[in-house]
Amino acid sequence: MTMQNQKPRSDAKRGDEILTVDSLSVEYETGANPVRALRDVSLSLEKGETLGVAGESGSGKSTLALAILQYLGENGRISGGDVRLQGESLVEMSGKQLRSIRGKEIAHVAQDPQRSLNPSIVVGRQITEAIKLHQSANEYVDALGTTARERTYEILREVNISDPEHVYDQYPHELSGGMQQRILIGMALSCNPDVLIMDEPTTGLDVTTQANILNIINELREEFDTAILLITHNLGVLSEIADRVAILYAGEIMEMGPTDTVFDSTANPYTQGLLATVPEVDTQKELSSIPGQIPELDNIPQGCIFADRCEFAEDNCRESPIEIEQISENHQTRCRRWKTVAENPIEPETDVSRTSERGDKVLEISGLKKHYDIPGPVDTFLGADPPVKAVDSVDLALYERTSLALVGESGCGKSSLGRTVLGLTDSTDGDISFRGTSIDEMTDEEYKRFRSECRIIFQNPESSLNPRNSIYELIERPLRLFTDYDESERLERVAELLSEVGLSPTYASRYPHELSGGEQQRISIARAFAAEPSVVVLDEPVSSLDVSVQADILDLLDRLRDEYSASYLFISHDLSVVRHLCDEVAVMYLGEIVETGAVEDIFENPSHPYTESLLDSIPSLDPQFRDEQLATLKGEVPSPRNPPSGCEFHTRCPDAREVCTTEDPELTASATDDSHLTACFRTREDHEYWSSPPLTIDQSDEE
Ligand code: SF4
Ligand code: SF4
What's the pTM? Predict the structure, then answer.
């Protein structure tokens, strides 16, 4: 970090209370009854502190952020309580007063960078404008001897954008989601605010980008005593960087205290339930979801708001409101049975091992390439750009009843590989064989069988389900295309599939927009399994879902794989989910497989530096790993149009040597396990790598 030129705005010192939320209640006018989105929420934030706020979707996390910023929409209002910034009530401030402190003293990083950035202005100028607006460009230049544009370059470097001069002039749509999020964080940091409110700042980002952003948040706190309110559903993220956490449920704080205390000595059934939904990369544990749904907030039930989902509930939990209780100096909970809860933590079963046996090879990929924008000979002669090598000479095999994970950062070619394997896009070269027959040599009948037996589930069910089709039509379509079922058999099969994915057959008459995200993904799964597939490609199937819903869907996928004896090609950037569901893993970098083997083996003994970096970037709930600084991988994935020479990872590899810049390592089996393959010279004892001089890769922060 290089923000030494920035001065803290307020005179408050580390440990001083800077933000106070006092008995805050918020209502939205939507129908007959107001939606009581927050009720009597009290919390405080000290200078230099990170307070995490967690809970399921609908718990009120984002409403809390918007209420603090006084950004509630037209139908929202503060119905009680106050929000104070250094003692001054934000609720009582005029619009003009609020505009003068927003961005400058209290800044917000919103959940969706695409919506927050102006699509018609280059991103650098958006940061420069923020600096000028809040800091006065002239004063800024006088103090630093630099221009606002130069300061913008510094900020871009601070958020790990390695080519700021180039990125400055790019529009938001030209950048990846991770880069957009970093631009937004850079904009919020540009004025070094006293309070930074971050709403799901790492959701949807891959683990290395997430680790970068979490380290930036930590550095902010350390260097500038910024007070950070971090909203997320990712408990691993909070475990890694939050000093304290507040667990929110249906608009009420259920538990609050120091992070270690709340996570290790949990005194609320809702917190226990949330923790049990989280897959962990360090252990193979059984996940359990929280049964039921968040109640309707326009008709608040009497008594404990969590009672309908609580396994500790007794009759008197429903009789009168449950007050939040101070159970130790810093620890509060809203549960009349907290002692019993604390004495009975959920102990998930660990070392859950799969019982189904790996069968025959069902799908084999050899030398597969998928290149985009391939120039013709004349264009090449005229100096056209080379093609984008999204997938480059990949060999893989998928066996019956196994799940093979494809992991890697955004832009490494995972999704392109998944789509090419299923024939959704043509390959450039190489071969795909299904049950021993190359798809290039299949008869029409064989190809139809391949299409019916190999299905895909996409990341975002909302965009993959045609909104004009009923649920019945969506699930029935593959039955019409790939089976001989008559109409009554199709009706029966759709009802059966709905039951299998945990939905009532009455859902058949509904439309996708009437369903929650989790229900929509269940429909996508039912559709994929309709014609009894043997291979299912799952492209980030749970990354857009809430934690509890994610646990349910993972459980469903686990069960269906066994019931249908199916094989999964599971594309994910979430290694915790991969560890939970998959048997084998292939790590991709710049269109190539750099390491592959059994999940247990790769996670316990990674041998490629890229795999090591991915694993070290994952925040952990486990106390023994919690305090370790997350490893970060410098820079972005290079362009697959112009990949680096030699080992393509050498520009980011902490162990690179001279030889790595010219020679390309091949996948080679380890000496002790011929199913564990790694493309790195470091694994070969007799390679000239060991006598080659080390490369200097700057892994430190840039000045
Ligand atoms: S008060 Fe009762 S219902 Fe509410 S969380 Fe505690 S045990 Fe469960
Ligand atoms: S071959 Fe060299 S650059 Fe490539 S991963 Fe191994 S050590 Fe790093």
Answer: 0.85
